[in-house]
Amino acid sequence: MDLTSISPVLLLASLMVAATPILLAALGELVVERAGVLNLGVEGMMITGAIAGFATAVATGSALLGFVGAAAGGAALSLLFAVLVLWLRSNQVATGLALTLFGLGLASLAGQPYNGVRAPPMPELDIPLLSGIPVLGPILFRHDPVVYLALALVGGVWWFLHRARAGLVLRAVGENHDAAHALGYKVLRLRLLAIAFGGACAGLGGAYLSLVRVPQWTEGITAGAGWIALAIVVFASWRPLRLLLGAWLFGGISVLQLNLQAANAPIPVEVLSMTPYLVTILVLVLISSGRGRARLAAPGSLGQPFHASR
């Protein structure tokens, strides 16, 4: 085993890239759950965004336009979810799981013509002067624009939820939708907008995988990233800044296991590979329990259907 072949600088730089798709999807899901809706269809929305973004990028020759198409694809599937759970009041857990399966099947079908096709290159945002700083330059200032967009969204979501009036109203809806409705707030409208935002973010995360991480179409490219995003939201106790740390942690695990494999480490690669998914299972078990939600300070109305006539 030769650990000297692992560069800490490159490891940290790769960590930020690996964490970006999970961070984008988790940020969207955080807003959705803050509004009181549990969306287990993140995986399906991510892979729908992945194929929509890839197809758009190939058709236009622009990776940046591909991300626009990805956001639209993820949002479209999320609106279907919104209609089913908000107006038809279907079970949120069952509907989310069904849309995940639907998204995986749709992406597999739509992706057939793109097997083996490479995506247009994504431009890197090499920040002058800052990118030349030793150590910090390669880690922080030599990434593509979507990495910085994800970081900006963390700050934007934090400000929205804690400083903006609309964000405070959205949190009130998530804590007690009946009380919010009694005060005159449009519960269904707010939840619809939150779900659309979550779907768009999931689509962006999926497109980052198909256009940047693996710049070609591969069936099942998300490989459970949506489930990890769900776990990170709970792990972060529905707080954006903690969510950033959680995304870096999960991204770091995935990058570390690849580096250890390259360094011929005696630890079985499968052990490191399965760690994020084991944590995902544990937190999903926690959130399925009422006591678990209470201990984690989950939104009070999370997963509960709302009917204006009650």
Automatic annotation (TrEMBL):
Signal peptide: none annotated. It comes from the Bacteria. It is found in: Cell membrane. The chain crosses the membrane at residues 6-25, 37-58, 64-88, 95-114, 145-161, 192-211, 217-236, 243-260, 266-287. It is a multi-pass membrane protein. Keywords: Cell membrane, Membrane, Transmembrane, Transmembrane helix. Its main location: membrane. This is ABC transporter permease. It comes from Rubellimicrobium aerolatum. The lineage of its organism: Bacteria, Pseudomonadati, Pseudomonadota, Alphaproteobacteria, Rhodobacterales.
